[in-house]
Amino acid sequence: FTKFKKLTEIYAYFYAKTKSKKLAANELKKIIEEKIFSSSTTSKINIPYFFVIDYQNFEKFINTIGKIKIVISEPLHYDDNAGNLHIHFEPGVYYMNGEEVLKYVRYRGQDTDINRIKRQQEFIKSFLKKIFNPLSFYKLPLIIYNFNKYFITNISFWEMINLIVEMRNLKTTNIRFSTLTGRPVGRYIEINKEQLNGLIEYLSEVVDKTKQKNIHIVLKVYNATNYPKIAKQVAMFLRQNGYDVISWGNWQNTQYKSKIIDYTQNIELVNNLCNLLNIEDVTSIFDQNSAELQQSILIVLGQDFLEKNKKIKFDF
Question: What is the model's pTM?
Fold first, then answer.
């Protein structure tokens, strides 16, 4: 493991050695389990499944499902004449086919890998929302067939059927995304071990749920729309519903999608907020260095907030 500097190098090494994508993915899975998702103070995290797909089959699979809604908040422009890759997106709402989605998730430009990961997470959220749409259920036989055709995975056909059945009852707000941060070391990023340990404890259910419920949680509301004073009005609305909102203000830039940034890992409370405010996008952040942050939930109101909350009266 010490001879590798990046996780992606592990897959490439074992694929070159075995000529098998499935074996290479399994080796990568084992190394992540043994060298990253393990701790002397917590239970071991097992990764049950993996999926491998190439660019060409990725495009085909997305086209099977149908166009995916993607919101782009900043210009994305990149040209690679040698690789025949040309990416040009202006800010806006797009309904992308397989080729366009592939360009979106591949885009890096002058950006960082962390921001590319966040874009890929945005794609996964939109992808799952598309799958959960009842209008997609009639496509399930074709989706399952093409999944087995295009993906290399260790999940069996019957496990896939069971997963699809369970997904029908799964709420998107119960799906959490989190990105591990770290410090730059040359051309690489060294993972923040405290944050990693917080994630491991949460995934292994070592977190004391009783203690967690006794923590007093506060809310902070931010306006990322073009509508003035909406953060204050939502803060007052939340106070009327029994929540402790300690501050409100403006977000650093305009956002289309509303989101909740959760430092508390209190699933029940966050789900209640999602239902109350009609917000589906939740990001979990594991920060063990700040006791204050561990008691905070940030609510970022995007342009879509008023569209989804027409029953709540706001004055501008």
Answer: 0.80
Nearest partner of 200 among 49, 26, 46, 4, judged by Cα: 46
For 272, the enclosing helix (H) or strand (E) is helix 267-277
Chain segment 35-62, per-residue pLDDT in tens: 888 755 556 788 999 999 999 999 999 9
**Cβ atoms within 10 Å, residue 75:** 10
3-state secondary structure of 155: coil
What single-letter DSSP state applies at residue 81? T
Burial of 225 (0-12, 13-18, 19+ CB in 10 A): buried
Cα distances (angstroms) measured from residue 209 to each of 47, 59, 272: 23, 42, 17
Residues paired with residue 266 on neighbouring β-strands, in sequence order:
none
Q: What is the pLDDT of residues 120-142, one digit of tens each?
A: 999 998 998 888 887 887 888 88
**Encoded amino acid at 97, one letter:** N
Domains of the chain: 54-150 (3.40.630.190), 193-308 (no CATH)
